[in-house]
Amino acid sequence: MSLKLAGFKIKQSQRITVSKREDDKLEFVSSLEYTDGSKISITVPLHNQIPLELRRGETVYIKVPMSSFSLEFSTRVVSFTSENILLVNLEQPQSYKRVQRRGTVRFKTLLNVQIAPLPEDPKEKPLFKDAVGLDLSAGGLELMTTEPYPEETFVLVCFDLEMQKNKKNNFTVKSLVRRLITISPKKFKVGVQFQDLTIAETDKIFQYIFKKSSEKEFWNK
Question: 3-state SS of the chain: helix, strand, coil percent to 5?
């Protein structure tokens, strides 16, 4: 079932985040279950299995992640209803903000990655080595490697992201090394910034991060 919000189609049970204020860094995970002309119904927001305490008339700030942006708005709690689950009913907002989110959301992960110095000659075959991705965003990646890759040099990184079961998206991305930390003689942390990603590739990374973040929060309930 699809719902509509600010003219955009949104799937029922779309994961959202809820906070007390726009500048509040403590965000609670919820899901959007119903919309009509007067209200929006969401599940009770949770953070580490702890519910957000809400009262009628209280203002909250909502973020609804889309592909490469989020719909954000302030609204007011108007009531609570209990059907199969407890729902928080919110007032339809008067206005929305569309906020670009490319590269800003990060996800701690363990990702199989291959990395190679970018060959000076385009005809030369890259010499890839195995690495582990530790932290992914739509703007870059932190890796654990067995080789040092000097800062401000270009590398190629290859990795797969499973968007759906048995369906992977393959990425081979030219990247700029921004940070190199020596852990031991054979272990290094390397931070790279993606270069020349297409909008479609950026959107896929963002969707993957939000999907995995939502799943993590769900299984922690």
Answer: 10, 55, 35
Q: How far apart are CA 20 and CA 17, in angstroms?
A: 10
- Flag whether the pTM goes above 0.70: no
Structural domain boundaries in the chain = 2-100, 106-219
Enumerate the β-bridge partners of residue 182: 188
CA 18 to chain CA centroid, nearest Å = 15
* Domain covering 2-100, topology: Pnp Oxidase; Chain A (2.30.110)
Q: What is the dihedral of CA 69, 71, 72, 76, to 10 degrees?
A: -160
Contact 75, 93 (CB under 8 A): yes
- One digit per residue, pLDDT tens: the chain, 221 residues? 678 887 888 888 888 899 999 988 888 999 999 998 889 999 999 988 899 999 999 999 999 887 667 789 999 999 999 878 899 999 999 889 887 654 456 788 899 999 999 998 888 999 999 999 999 988 899 999 999 999 999 999 999 998 777 788 899 999 999 999 999 999 999 999 998 888 778 778 877 887 777 665 544 44
**CATH architecture of the domain formed by 106-219:** Beta Barrel (2.40)
Do the Cβ atoms of 65 and 107 come closer than 8 Å?
no
Q: Are 112 and 152 in contact (CB under 8 A)?
A: no
CA–CA dist 139, 121 (Å, integer): 26
**How many alpha carbons fall within 13 Å on the CB side of residue 79?**
6
Is there a shared CATH topology between the 2-100 domain and the 106-219 domain?
Answer: no
